[in-house]
Amino acid sequence: MKLTWPPAVHLPLCLRECLDGVVSGGSRSGPCPSAPHLHAPFFQIVDISVPRIAAWNSDELPIYEPGLDKVVKACRGKNLFFSTDLDQGIRDADIIFVAVNTPTKKVGLGAGRAADLTYWELAARRIALVAETPKVVVEKSTVPINTAEAISAVLHGAGKTRFDILSNPEFLAEGTAMTDLDNPDRVLIGGSMSESGQAAVAKLADVYAHWVPRERILTTNVWSSELSKLVANSFLAQRVSSINAVSAICEASGADVDEVARAVGMDSRIGPKFLKASVGFGGSCFQKDILNLVYLCQSMGLPDVAEYFHSVVTMNDRQKERFVSRIIHGLFNTVTGKRIALLGFAFKKDTGDTRESAAIEICRRLIEERASVCIYDPKVEANQIWMDLTAATRLDRTEVEKYVTLCDSAYEAAAGAHALAVATEWDEFKGLDYAKIQDGMVKPSFLFDGRNVLDHGALRKLGYIVYAIGKPLDPKLNTNFC
Ligand SMILES: NC(=O)C1=CN([C@@H]2O[C@H](COP(=O)(O)OP(=O)(O)OC[C@H]3O[C@@H](n4cnc5c(N)ncnc54)[C@H](O)[C@@H]3O)[C@@H](O)[C@H]2O)C=CC1
Ligand SMILES: O=C(O)[C@H]1O[C@H](OP(=O)(O)OP(=O)(O)OC[C@H]2O[C@@H](n3ccc(=O)[nH]c3=O)[C@H](O)[C@@H]2O)[C@H](O)[C@@H](O)[C@@H]1O
């Protein structure tokens, strides 16, 4: 069997199959190109992006994800292939995973909220044009409810064969993608109740059953599956916004957010995960998917439900602004000309992804205040940072460079700084020599821990004035702001 079209980050789903060397239960196993005598499943990743495919075929993979490198190297050229030949990939496949990007619409109807399904429709039209034999087409991208129906209309309207459309949302998180895929809480498959729809559901379930226990493979109707993905991300983001809202109460009251999270999370009905207060959630999906849900609610005449979910994004925006305000007011109400070392730029640790990273907004605000920002991140590419900051500030690169310097280490970023600000919880920040760093800083030296990952007591003993999210305020910190 040949599976086509998962995007970069979903790749391990298929790879796991390759590693196990399992022949999946597909109706048409294909001969493996490198070993035609083997009727084993093989996986063709096809993408319109020539540079991305070139990177997948090189030693420098286009994304950083712990463990992914090893798996790609073990399987590439054996039963895993990367290509820009979309048509061949479509023709040969039994099951086609479509996992193209579905960003928030920038213009037109629903701009700023609705999902942009342009890439999905283009992919579907290509499949319809090229496919000559029946295909199972799997929605891997996160899409609004009813997308399967629309895609079915496109495929059957323009195509010359039968298509069964399934919803199979992806729940992995970046940074832990490999373990999430190895051991998912559940796999969700939504399909039509027709005979061929149910056969398609069974076919895909058989693929997963090679490594996922059957009781964790959940089948539903298509709409429930599509909606569940948006709801799951909204609930997760809601927990982060809830604990961040609590962090503001803690700072105003003297309570400690980590203590509160622990006490609350020990209630088995609430649970301990996703209760880490932070500078605000980022990533390509939380905000996009909530806004998508908000748009759906508005379109369905449910404005109060829309408003309820939208408050999760509003709270997240406020948390980022609150952090920046703490820096500005802490540094005696001005950061103009002051050097701030920003530790971390990725939206979370163990990824080089910066999409919607809180660091971008923090930098934008600091640039607005004419601070000098020195950024260090162990995995984010310099070009990515320049692209993010020029887009966020709407300044050209030369203007941004007046305020921003990119550094090769935390020590370089911190040299001569008035303040350190931790935006990403990279493990290496816990092991830095903060005494040495402080020696080279302007006094008093400030540290703003946007992730609560450092030992604040030890830092205070070294002489830092420390602000940490949702922790009792340092009496030496200027809090003179509304
Ligand atoms: N990144 C993640 O961790 C997760 C992403 N998702 C969902 O998966 C989808 C993809 O997300 P990412 O991989 O992050 O996006 P991405 O933007 O990194 O990758 C999408 C890929 O699709 C390719 N593409 C676009 N149009 C195409 C077409 N017509 N034919 C062939 N290839 C085409 C692009 O060149 C790009 O390489 C989104 O809907 C997202 O919400 C879901 C769960 C996790
Ligand atoms: O649809 C998606 O793209 C994915 O979105 C999230 O995964 P991801 O965005 O990769 O990473 P998360 O671990 O969820 O973190 C998201 C953001 O929330 C922040 N966060 C998370 C947890 C927490 O307790 N506190 C907190 O601030 C993280 O630092 C990060 O900025 C979901 O966790 C995945 O299940 C989902 O598949």
Automatic annotation (TrEMBL):
What's the protein here called?
Uncharacterized protein
